Amino acid sequence: MAATLTAAMSVGSVSQAETVTLKFDQIDSTAVIMPEIYGQFAEHLGACIYGGLWVGPESPIPNTSGYRNDVLQALKDLKVPVMRWPGGCFADEYHWRDGIGPLKDRPTQVNNNWGGTVEDNSFGTHEFFNLCELLGCEPYLSGNVGSGTVQELAQWVEYITAADGPMARLREANGRKEPWKLKYLGVGNESWGCGGNFTPAYYADVYRRYQTYCRDFSGNRLYKIASGASDYDYKWTDVVMKGAGSKMNGISLHYYTVTGWRGSKGSATEFSPEDYYWTMGKCLEIEPVIEKHIAIMDKRDPKNRVGLMVDEWGTWWDVEPGTNPGHLYQQNTMRDAMVAALSLNVFQRHTSRVKMANIAQVANVLQSMVLTRGDQMVLTPTYYVFKQYIPHQGAVVVPLEVETETMDVRGDRKVDLLQATASRKDGKTAVSLTNVSIDRDMDVELPLGDFKVKTVEGSIITAPTIDSYNDFGKAETVTLKPFKGARIGKGKVTLKLPAKSIVTLIME
Ligand code: AHR
After folding, report:
1. Looking at the predicted structure, is the pLDDT value of residue 388 above 70?
2. pLDDT above 50 (res 137)
3. Which residue out of 36, 190, 405, 445 is catalytically annotated?
4. Predicted pLDDT of residue 295
5. Percent of the chain having pLDDT more than 90?
6. pLDDT of residue 8
7. Is 190 designated active site?
8. What is the pTM for the complete model shown?
9. CB atoms within 10 A of CB 26
10. Nearest to 171, CA basis, from 156, 189, 183, 150
11. How far is 427 from 434, CA to CA, in rounded Å?
12. Which atom of ligand 1 is the closest one to the Cα of 189?
């Protein structure tokens, strides 16, 4: 722990309590938080698939048909709603026929994007779809547009979803008679870059062509997602929506909390308070970015038919020292947990367009849920945020207003030190509160108006220091614990929100 992180930042002092006013009278029952915004992303990258999710049935690591048991259970506990696969950049060099049939006949390939590692294709279509069945989540297939063909993608959809015909017979010969369900189909990934370096106008035409032949078989209905923009590329969204908006159900957006694309991205575990507050500002900038993309979508799709799918997001730091730079393996601290909470809050504020989000990646890569080493597994601080936020999945947004102190941070951004989101489901109200300050506890009040609360319970994620993380072979430093600090008063709930903490209250 760097001593400097305990030093107070000069943020001034606030005497009265910060407030979060819940607007129960303004609930819009259509503002449902899609469970899919808690989506995951499994890419053939580093040890995400091999070693992370999959060890193979012959492994000494305890497994169920090849899926490691510890990770499987951890993901079941997270109620993962959707999993994107097989990339990322890997998707546009993936040829699905290489990953079906007897293992000994599967060809190998070089994973050109990610360290030149040899991919043996032992985890393919059956292994992915069976995993989704085990987890009870929707599969989200990322189709190869960059180096594949229309026929290849069309037949993949047929192989997965058709009840009869040549592709169904091939699937049956490979051991699976019943078709799987496939809802989410991505037509390319980052088609402006690793997915083919297309111009937006050209991609829009290519998208139109590909989606024509991706058909609904045997009662399956595809939700087709166009490859969208990165960050601030509003032109991409505009041109693709204009050219192909009527032929899609969704368009993606990628936004990483990253210092830049050249040179060092900074250490995942060693950073200054200033770096930490910069990270909060950068991660919150996803909100104006989303709003600008939505404004374009509103213009091109005024009936709000097309969803915005943030199908890659999260922190991106330097790889852990001594690891393969092409494998993007990074640790995950309390700072990453804060990024997760703040980003999820943003998605929950934009439910009318944001229909899915997939944090990158589920295991052993960027802002992962789990890290594995041999037969050991670590649950990251980010994992615990996803767990703590489960009550928001599928709930209706409760609008709220926050009064708090604002801090100027590096990069010419402003950060509100108290961040909040709230939702309601089955008669329960879930309120998640984040105290971004490293060193100042907050007195928080939640005025309730006429709304009556009989019980309040809660959970908290915090850590000794903002750079705390969970490590192999050590007791967990950052975890989810019960929070007993909330009190029901006259027309309000009050609590002391510790510095650098995330609390979720469940009020009934
Ligand atoms: O998440 C790592 C990579 O970031 C993905 O493969 C790609 O889509 C993006 O550039």
Report:
1. yes
2. yes
3. 190
4. 98
5. 96
6. 32
7. yes
8. 0.95
9. 12
10. 156
11. 23
12. 8
Q: For residues 179 and 160, is the Cβ–Cβ distance under 8 A?
A: yes
219: nearest Cα among 139, 170, 164: 164
Answer yes or no: is the C-beta of 360 below 6 A from any ligand 1 atom: yes
The mean of the pLDDT values for the chain is 96
Task: Tell which residue, 46, 52, 44, has the closest CA to residue 380.
Answer: 52
Cα 157 to Cα 153, 168, 208, 265: the distances in Å are 6, 10, 16, 38
Question: Tell me, what's the pLDDT at 114?
Answer: 97
What lies within 8 Å, CB to CB, of 247 at 6+ separation is 207, 208, 211, 224
Atom of ligand 1 nearest to the CA of 41: 1
Closest-CA residue, ligand 1 atom 4, reads 88
The answer to whether 312 is a known catalytic residue is: yes
52-101 per-position pLDDT tens digit: 999 999 999 999 999 999 999 999 999 999 999 999 999 999 999 999 99
Ligand 1, atom 6, residue with closest C-alpha: 88
- Assess whether pLDDT exceeds 90 at residue 319: yes
The one-letter code for the residue type at 50 is Y
Point out which residues pair with 396 in neighbouring strands: 32, 424
Q: Is the CB of 311 under 6 A from ligand 1?
A: no
| End-to-end alpha carbon distance in the chain | 39
